[in-house]
Amino acid sequence: MSSQHTPDAAAAAPAVGADSPFRQEHALRDEAPQFVLPLVVRIEKTEPPARTDALETAARAVLVLLTDERAEGEGEWAAAVRDWQDARIRKVVRRARGAEWRKAQSLPGITVHGDASEVRVFPPVPLDGWPKELAKLQVSGTDLDDPAPPSPAGPGLPVLWFNPGLEMSAGKAMAQAGHAAQLAWWELTGAERARWQDSGFRLAVRTATPEGWAELNRSGLPVVRDAGFTEIAPGSATVIADHPALRARL
């Protein structure tokens, strides 16, 4: 699988002919039934999480779901996960607090904790088939901030690098971070996946410098390119997944 993917689509690539393999794959994914992976972030009025913590927790939540026994083999979520990954890997982040959060907790899913953030990830649902408890939750209002600039990522840690030239709401960025983690996961070997999982899917989310972003774009590491449905232009490169195991192959 290509290392360049749009979060709401198939692989993104330079302009090519209508009969190219890329265009054909893109069309096949468009024709498949469309699913979305719901994520809900807990944002209480008095104690909202820090932005970077929420982004990192969302990325880990996607990986936790992909490796849950219910999402594998003949598990109860496996068919939905397969259908979702065979089409566009859409993810939508909504926010909840108080009673809304408690209702979300009652639905089948997994809550992943960060330093102070909580994100609940649910098995994929049809694009127009959200559970009513989640459908009523707001997509907007996820404007989170970091109280201080994040410290440099530790050595040997997978880093999801954001494009310094783009501005996104925290909810949009959480979905992008999840896409980047998923692209890295797809390209790892079984042993590499096992080591990452054993670490609790440790990772960092940081914004690259302009110079660093240019270098990352030349590296061949997995790149998330957005479909452009919300907030940013279609085809925008949003995140690059810099996993040590992938970098070692460059």
If you had to describe this structure to a student in words, what would you say it looks like?
- The protein is of the alpha/beta class.
- The protein is 35% helix and 18% strand.
- The protein contains nine helices and ten strands.
- The chain has helices spanning 21-31, 51-66, 78-86, 98-106, 132-135, 170-187, 190-198, 210-217, 244-247, and strands at residues 4-5, 35-42, 90-96, 110-113, 118-121, 125-126, 159-162, 204-207, 223-225, 237-242.
- The strands form two sheets. It has a five-stranded mixed β-sheet with strand order 1-9-10-7-8, sandwiched between helices.
- The longest helix is centred in the last third of the chain and has 18 residues, at 170-187.
- The radius of gyration is 17 Å and the shape is globular.
- Residues 1-18 and 20-26 have low confidence and may be disordered.
